[in-house]
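User: Please predict structures.

Assistant: First:
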Amino acid sequence: MEYIPYLLVLHITGRCNLKCAYCYASSYDKKDLEIETAQNILSQAAKLGTRHVILSGGEALLHPDFYTISEYAKNLGIKVHLTSNGTLIDENNAKELKSLDAIVTISLDGSCSEINDPLRGGGTFDSAISSINNLVHCGVTTSMRMTLVKDNVSDVHNYIDLAKRQKVNRCIIERVTGILDNPESFELEPSSEDLIKSFEILSKYANIEGIKMGSNDPLWLIYRNNLCEKITGNDHIRGGCTAGVASVTITPDLTVIPCPRLPVKAGSLNEESLEDIWLTSKVFLELRDRDLFAGCSSCDSKYICGGCRGAAYSRGSYLAKDPHCWRNG
């Protein structure tokens, strides 16, 4: 089977203007990628078949050449996505993002400031809502994303209602995963029962007209059996965790890792080409063999799920069992 990095997550800066409680990027070098370096990476990715790039950080909009890098990606035929904390998007920025035909995801962790701000910082709820309003007004394809922690599980229903009122295109719920360098992140983790409860609420809203509801979590697929039936296959990977399978992440110091939540070095662009790393890295080769995954190898849904490898890594190995999976004990 041929593996193509359809999605590149490119951290163009390690700088951020917030200090979220569960941030995986807090250990990144607080510097910006040189514009020529970013363009070279995008060119390498395009040759490998990359079709989407998520520009992230840190806060990607802090990079002084964000729009130049975005335009370069667009000209390569790569769809530009921005993941932002929603503190810097005024009407002018929203118009520029619209001109790029970018897809923007705003991180917002509650339906009100009382729930969101303790996680993301004082005033961040109001800033994010203002950014969402600007984006929607300018016709930018916009998503709201909640990072699910134990303290906002009870707010999922209200959060979805907020997304409907804001008229965003998509509402995403994704669990926090423990970060080894951030002990506080483990204290925030929801339980498996919390995750199932959130999926139950999401599934009730999944077919709302005008807004897509769901999760990028691999476990969302095995929760919704109808999705499993559509894409099930018994001989090769058909879905689930994309880390090292259909996506790759590059940090500001040019370290290549499978996923932002799986900070295992697969290689460095200071030493090798992206193509060489993608094709030969031991880390990537192992991530493409789900028979190696504890708890997955005997599961009939291994080719459409595979669990979250970042969550597994937080328990000691990216080949370990996803700690929130309710199957196989």
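Second:
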Amino acid sequence: MACLARIPAQAPVPRHTPLRRRTAGMAGRVSALAVAVLLGACTSFGVIDNQPLKAGEDQPGYSLDTFNRTLNQRSDELSLAVAFSGGGTRAAALAYGVMQELRDTRIQLNGSERSLLESINVISSVSGGSFTSAYYGLYGERLFKDFEARFLRRNIEGALLRSLFNPLQWFSSHDRTETAVAYYKEILFGDATFGDMIRKDAPLILINTSDLASGERFTFNQEYFDLLCSDLSSFSLARAVTASSAVPVVFDPVVVENFKGCVRRAPAWLTAARKRDANDPNLAMIVRDNDVYQDKAKHRYAQFVDGGITDNLGLRAMLDTIELVGGARQYQKDMGIPVPRHIAFISVNAAADTPLGIGATSRAPSIENTLNAVTNIQLHRYNVATLQQMQQSVEAWAKQLSTPERTVNPYFIRLSFESVPDGPLRRFLNEIPTSFALSDDQVDQLITTGRTLLRDNPDFQRLVASLGGTVGGKTAATPAK
């Protein structure tokens, strides 16, 4: 069979080590023939497309520091973060519906009316959700003009498979991952880099992926790229989104180089976290994950695949960041940002509960059903633990930031299909596959559901009421005292 992948003349990539974290949901209805072609392709080496930091550069470009201090005008009324889960086009469409509702929700902030969408400080995303977040981060409200046509209502899966089955592609220099990068550039992002997302008053977009070699969740921001001695501002946005959604086996990893020479010691935030991790196993794990990049010989390359493997909710990036610096109060001091009266986190979870029918018969399940069941079990249990930790953390951060004179109010707004009443609609939503090829009816219902879930959420209504706003064109009910 013809080789579908590029084989450049370079040293072999270091052998992978097993993932330590939970396996999460993968995108995917791929035909048996497509799988045979993909598995039959010869061994490939990833295209290296990241650049080293230039001498003297210190956290340039797309960083937490840049956004918090200079670009995002922080309010002392509200700090708002949003997380988009994985789940193919299903996740992207649900997230898009939530963004529409945020756009149409009006609040009073610092004496003026504005949309809640404009008040977002950060969006963290994985896999399918990263298409929505990255498009908004790059283009702003153009999202509502052409994202549906360019992505949600396009058969992405079919286009990629047609490209792979094109005999001319078999002898090209592009492997299947490079084909995806080129396609996402063509239909969505062009040659845009993270430097192009540095816009005043835009939210910080945290696109998350998983490093196969270390088992770590990795976030595309300059703080993480500093560990690689690499410049994020020149890195392709399409390549990052491909890394966030690259299902293992179906796609090769997106590979970046871990350069030598720019940092003689670990970053200050990592050194400080290392001193505090003795009595905190979770913090110790995060520190160890980041420490691996200090060994430039054993970890010369990072190999990035679907972000859902290490966190399918997109919440861990925010949890880990605040934990690494020592809590909400320390983060507020380090970033030089005002303490808000309200801190709100919106979790948009597109996970579906699809019955596999395994318990209805004594017949041994198929390999596909077995793998799906194992994946779903691990995904569900890890998601439950993450949501519980996030709920507890948001409440703890509010207490850390509160003073006797000024109370900080926490809001953790959880949106998922579980909130849809049991009935035909819920069954319809749970039967939507994790693919990148949905029908117009499925997309329509996902967008509507995203809007409805947010609008009807009691914690969201409480937040909007506290900000003197309106939900669905109506003044939100004043929260009970």
